[in-house]
């Protein structure tokens, strides 16, 4: 628990990633994760039902100069895991147990947007679909993630 005068260790990281202020208490001790920072993921909306973020293509490409398939999956898993964590609530955590993706179209420049939508929000499992699009709204990939929800030991 933080007092009102000490900034959370990751306050600047959370702000740079677009995490809403009302979630800083929850994530203030953890941040968004080194990979989210490294990939340049920026959140636009965050809720259990719908989480949206952008990610630059630049810096996340494979040898052929297109967005790496793994980068698609990183964005998808990030969105699904954050949405599941929000659904889990305090003193619980979401653990990804299955993720899969289908790549439909390549992209070599610009910014992609991932839109995560809840399929199932249960007591112990969540499932989300993530659609990644380009700046023209064309679907680049579709992913699905299932998270196990459990109490944090302690």
If you had to describe this structure to a student in words, what would you say it looks like?
The protein is of the alpha+beta class and 154 residues long. The chain has one domain (41-151): Hotdog Thioesterase (Thiol Ester Dehydrase, Chain A, Roll). Helices cover 23% and strands 36% of the residues. The chain has a six-stranded antiparallel β-sheet, with helices on one face. Strand 4 (111-121) and strand 5 (125-133) form a beta hairpin. It is globular and about 45 Å long. The two termini are 15 Å apart. Pfam families: 4HBT. Belongs to the thioesterase PaaI family. Residues 65-139 form the Thioesterase domain. InterPro entries: HotDog_dom_sf, PAAI_dom, Thioestr_dom.
List the helices and strands and how they pair.
Blueprint: H1 11-16, H2 24-27, H3 34-39, E1 42-45, E2 50-56, H4 69-88, E3 92-103, E4 111-121, E5 125-133, E6 139-151
